[in-house]
Every structure is written in structure tokens, then in C-alpha cells.
Amino acid sequence: MSKDKAYKILAKKHTLSHKQAKALIDKGLVHIGGKKLTLARAYIPSDSHFEILEIRTPQVLFCNDEILAVDKPAFIESYDLCTFYEGWNLLHRLDRETSGVILLIKEKSAFAKKCKEAFKEQKVQKEYRAIVHGRIVDSISIEKPISTIRRGFAKSYIDKNGLYAYTQLNPLAIVGKKTLVQVYITTGRTHQIRVHCQSLKHPIYGDRIYGIQDSAPRLMLHAHKIALLGYEFVSPIPKELQLEHWAQ
């Protein structure tokens, strides 16, 4: 059976330019046989069947003169949201494959300053949902400092000399060797939840950096709720993280 580079086969089968095909693969949007294709230049059979995931459009959850709450789909970079909403700036960020509520502000406003102070003083409540490998039967509090290396891309690790980080995991449901967990964090270190889960040997499903190989379509992490300065915003749990979907 003949083989060729994945991006060339994808481009030919879906009438794309080589550049477009590479971009789709690099963004993690192309699957073969239920598994994410991670290398655009990988040699694969010419008769391979591709599944291309669609990226949802961001949705506004709330907006007034002070703050804009957006439901960010997976596979959209946080910084790209500023191109959707002119005049607004990111207050914080989510990883590209993490979905959920994210906040934008007017950069030079007095309220923006208060928001940044609330984050700095750890007065922001953040709740996530995640699906992790293995069975977690009791709530777990994790206080492990984290350091981050930035060399073109960020990667974090547990480091006794790192910055303080706190994560709490509460199991909501267990099916087989998977656990759906509610996650609370008071700090916001880079990849904090992912690194803390890995440190417990319960990496998040779909985590290609800190996890293990699995068939998840993306990082199974969702920013469900955030509250600060009297506001509270909630992003609905996406289908792929709902019990009825992943328990099958």
C-alpha cells in the first residue's frame, strides 16, 4: 500500500492547500480512526480516512460597560478572542484546547485595575470540570509549587523552588478507569491543573503534553465557572464532558 505525508493526503482528499492542511493538523483538528493526528509530515497510508473537527464560534455569556464574559470553544487561542471583540482585552487566559468561560476587560478602566488586583490577591473563584485517568474516590487538595520553562512554548513542572499553587479535586462520577472531577483553583499557574493531576498519576484525558496516549478528541478540561467582584459567570458543560456522553 502506498504512503505519503499526512498533510499532502489530507490536502488532496479535502481540496485544501498544503498550508491549510498543515494548519489543521497542527491545531489538533484532524483525526484518523478516532485518534488525533499529531504530525503533519508523518507518512500514512494513502487511503486513510480523515475526520476534521469543527471549531465552534465563541459565544457571549454576559457583557456590560465593565466586563465581557465569553464561552471559549476548544481549539481557539485565548489571544484570538480579541479579534472577535474589538476594544476588549484579555483579563486571563485558557489553554488552546481548554473550553469554557474567559473574561475580557477594557484595559485602562478603573474596573480593570480592580480585576487584576483580585487575581493577584487570589480573590477569584474558579471552578473547572475534567475527566482524568484512573479512579479518584475521595477529594484531594494539592499544594505543590510549580515552575514554568518558556522556550517557544510553555511547559511546567513541580518544583520546590517554584510558585505556590493550590488545586482541589472532587470526584463527581467514576466509570471504568475514568473519573469526572470538579476542580477548584485559587492560583493560576501555567498548566496548573494539568501538572497537578499528572503529579497524582491521574493525568487529564487528551493531554498530549502531561498525559498518556488515549483516544480523547481534545484536552478534557472545561472552565465551568468564575466569580469575582460580585460577578459570577457560568459556561455550560460541553457534550464531550457530560456523563451521558463519556460513560458509554
What structural class results from the helix and strand content?
Answer: alpha+beta
What's the CATH topology name of the largest domain?
Pseudouridine synthase
Helical content stands at 10-25%
CATH architecture designation of the largest domain: 2-Layer Sandwich
SSE pattern: EHHEEEEEEHEEHEEEEEEHEEH
Distance between the termini: 34 Å
Q: Any idea what the shape is?
A: globular
Which residues sit in consecutive blocks of at least 5 with pLDDT less than 50? none
Number of strands: 17
Task: Work out the radius of gyration.
Answer: 19 Å
What's the CATH superfamily of the largest domain, by name?
Pseudouridine synthase
- Sheet-strand content, in percent, reads 35-45%
What's the structural domain tally?
2
Report the biggest beta sheet as strand number plus sense, adding barrel if it closes: 10 strands, mixed
Number of helices: 6
Q: What top-tier CATH class of the largest domain fits best?
A: Alpha Beta
Mean pLDDT: 89
